[in-house]
Amino acid sequence: MVEGSTSTLTTDWVVAWLRESARVVSEQRQYLIDLDRAIGDADHGENLDRGFTAVVKKLDDGDHPATPGAVLKLAAMTLMSSVGGAAGPLYGTALLRAATSLGDTELIGPNEVAGLLTAARDGIVARGKAESGDKTMVDAWTPAVEAAGTAAMAGASVAEVLAAAANAANAGAAATEPLIARKGRASYLGERSAGHLDPGAVSSGLILQAAVDAAGAQE
Amino acid sequence: MVEGSTSTLTTDWVVAWLRESARVVSEQRQYLIDLDRAIGDADHGENLDRGFTAVVKKLDDGDHPATPGAVLKLAAMTLMSSVGGAAGPLYGTALLRAATSLGDTELIGPNEVAGLLTAARDGIVARGKAESGDKTMVDAWTPAVEAAGTAAMAGASVAEVLAAAANAANAGAAATEPLIARKGRASYLGERSAGHLDPGAVSSGLILQAAVDAAGAQE
Amino acid sequence: MNVGLVIVSHSSKIAEGVCDLAREMAADVPLVAAGGLEDDSGVPLIGTSLEKVLEATSTADQGAGVVLLTDLGSAVMTAEMALEFIDSDQRSRVRLARAALVEGAVAAAVEAQSGADVDAVTRAAEAAIVAL
Amino acid sequence: MNVGLVIVSHSSKIAEGVCDLAREMAADVPLVAAGGLEDDSGVPLIGTSLEKVLEATSTADQGAGVVLLTDLGSAVMTAEMALEFIDSDQRSRVRLARAALVEGAVAAAVEAQSGADVDAVTRAAEAAIVAL
Ligand SMILES: Nc1ncnc2c1ncn2[C@@H]1O[C@H](COP(=O)(O)OP(=O)(O)O)[C@@H](O)[C@H]1O
Ligand SMILES: Nc1ncnc2c1ncn2[C@@H]1O[C@H](COP(=O)(O)OP(=O)(O)O)[C@@H](O)[C@H]1O
Ligand SMILES: [Mg+2]
Ligand SMILES: [Mg+2]
Ligand SMILES: [Mg+2]
Ligand SMILES: [Mg+2]
User: DhaL domain: from which residue to which, for each copy (chains A, B) (predicted)?
Assistant: First the structure.
């Protein structure tokens, strides 16, 4: 939990979140590759690194859009054409729905944070049709959304809402280990997919933690 | 019907048959391509020309094998690796089975001719699983085999047996026009395949006519 | 004017090869490959890209519509996303077939060559699984 | 020692692309392309060749056996012919799968990577049609 955090987030937070996601994904590239090697095709770290690097490049190239929603949309479009793997349409749809949930909003309070996370999760589910327990990134996002919603309802700050989401996502990711994959490439392995963490759930935890860190840095 | 024909055929006839097949297929290349364009992929003439050219090249390269069966087997193997289309395994299997039916026989009489044609047809059916009326080369070969058998039983000469087979094959090929294809690429067209000759049935007529002409030239 | 096909594959070789194969039986059908993607330096990678699918869909549509065929699950997701981005007047004539890629594409191309509409072409693609 | 796969396609691009795609999830599985053929001058053509299939089958077999996957009907005929030419001791560990080529190959490769035998790998390929 971040103490003394600002009461609302702005476009700067979105930009910082995307940059921090790029940094952590690049740092954890090999770890995500290794996770994906066990139950997939060993490219999740490479895919996300390529995608977020492209996003950062877009942010660096001249002025980024003014509103949080517009920046999220730019990132979504970039991910969808550069990630290459399943994570491309999934994170792309997540950010696009988050952008839509914000509309032209310029100031993001606790309820907007919970709302954009919910929209993102709903986008992932709409796109990939996975249910909880299918050993996918949904198993990180659904507890994250629930924790964020509870925190927002209880009057938490934006930083607290984000922290609740990230913690729940990381716990959800850890809990994918014993599961048998029922969606995505890992489902080809059937029962052999048990005993491994889901790479997308782990990267979701990293990205939500990046949102926390970006909010902390904004203070 | 060829008058005054020899009473038995030899390896020379097999070689002459293959060379004459190559000549006529090359001459009719464009016609076979056009037939295949209507209900297939416009390559039947090209496929057979390439395949029989390769066979002739094998025959030209040094000494060919001594027995009729061994020459047929050489031709079969060559067609199977050079024709490329369905006609490759089909004619390849036909000649291979014909070779097997001859064994080490050196002199081919009327019964052996009927026998090798039957073996060839059975090979085509075993390979392609088409029935009569499916608008394939089987619709040329089955009447050919029946006519050859009838002629051989009636005491006809080898030339007469071959002529009966070729005439029946050509009639069978002509009769494919109204049929709806149920095997091979033309079956993708469903009812639109009606109103066109089957290319493989037509080429089968040409190849059996080449057998007649080769026997005539042997006298 | 024939319905066009877009072949969405993780591999540019597969996408191009399927177009080559289908073209043999469908000379007048717009067949467009949307396979693989490239990294920053243009190195070909295995994967799918929304941008490629959108471009291919607009190239393949000559007014009669387009049927998209895909390989693995993530290609399906990319294609479904593309459907959401296509503007509404084109959207009504674009379909995503649930078909075996190679087998479905050949069957669909033959159907399209005959002048069939997008729904019939989609059905031909989807029936090709069953006919295997 | 894993079961190997031979990808028999009319197009060399499809055969190679399918191997590329399957290799991503099956690093230890021998994946061999038997696609297309060449004319006398080495120009690539659409079609299948017995010679290529036989060579690929012997390359892919490291002792655990081989599963062949094919695209269109004439590729099936070439593959069935190849089965007749394989010598009898190898023949008992070679299978021809009735599967959607791309989808079946990926599923079969993953199964082979796990050390499954030829029959299990064949079943995985054939089940992939249903799972489409
Ligand atoms: N249908 C789906 N629904 C939700 N998440 C999915 C689905 N398919 C795959 N994923 C997620 O995507 C991750 C793999 O991403 P990535 O490696 O980039 O894609 P690919 O499998 O195409 O190589 C998985 O670990 C999983 O979390
Ligand atoms: N299953 C089959 N049984 C018998 N003959 C067949 C079969 N499939 C195709 N044919 C024959 O093959 C001919 C086409 O040969 P070709 O053009 O060389 O092959 P492809 O269709 O592979 O291009 C058809 O006209 C038909 O006579
Ligand atoms: Mg992956
Ligand atoms: Mg991948
Ligand atoms: Mg043809
Ligand atoms: Mg052909």
Answer: 12-213
Residue B189, pLDDT above cutoff 90? yes
Sequence-distant (6+) residues with CB within 8 A of A63 are none
| Per-residue pLDDT tens over the stretch A7-51 | 899 999 999 999 999 999 999 999 999 999 999 999 999 999 999
Are C78 and C48 within 8 A, CB to CB?
yes
- State pTM to two decimals: 0.95
Residue of A137, A142, A204 to test ligand 1 pocket, by largest number of atoms within 8 Å of CB: A137
Tokens encoding B217? 């030239």
* Cβ contact B103:B109 at 8 Å: no
Residues with CB under 6 A from ligand 1: A 36, 40-41, 43-44, 47, 85-87, 90, 124, 128-130, 136-138, 183-185, 198-201; C 74
Residue A24, φ and ψ in degrees, nearest 5: -70, -35
Q: Locate tokens 């890992």: which residue?
A: A186
What are the b/e assignments for A48-77, b being 16+ CB within 10 Å? bbbbbbbbbebbeeeebbebbbbbbbbbbb
What residues does each domain of chain B span? Answer: 11-217
Q: For residue range D93-128, list pLDDT tens digits in order.
A: 999 999 999 999 999 999 999 999 999 999 999 998
- Secondary structure class of B215 (helix, strand, coil): helix
**For residue A187, what are the CA distances in angstroms to A92, A171, A172, B99, C119?**
22, 22, 19, 50, 31
Q: How far apart are CA B48 and CA B50, in angstroms?
A: 5
Under 8 Å CB pairs connecting chains A and D tally to: 14
Alpha carbons within 13 angstroms on the beta-carbon side of residue B37 total: 9
Question: Rounded to an integer, what distance in angstroms lies between the CA atom of residue B213 and that of residue C62?
Answer: 52
Strand partners, C7: C33, C69
Dist. CA A28–CA A30, nearest whole Å? 6
DSSP-derived secondary structure for A25-66: HHHTHHHHHHHHHHHS-S-HHHHHHHHHHHHHHHHHSSPPPS
Q: What is the DSSP string of chain D?
A: ---EEEEEES-HHHHHHHHHHHHTT-TTS-EEEEE-EE-TT--EESS--HHHHHHHHHHH-SSS-EEEEESSHHHHHHHHHHHHHS-HHHHTTEEE--S-HHHHHHHHHHHHHTT--HHHHHHHHHHHHHT-
Give CA–CA dist D59/B55, Å, rounded: 27
Residue A71: name the closest of A98, A89, A48, A110 by CA.
A98
Cβ distance B32 to B68 under 8 Å?
no
Find the C6 Cα to ligand 1 centroid distance in Å: 23
In 3D space, the residue among B207, B107, B104 whose CA is nearest the CA of residue B162 turns out to be: B207
For ligand 1, the distance from its centroid to the CA atom of residue A173, given in whole angstroms, is 13
Strand D4-9 with C94-96, pairing: unpaired
**Residue B155 is encoded by which pair of tokens?**
């005491």
Looking at residues C98-103, what average pLDDT do you find? Answer: 94
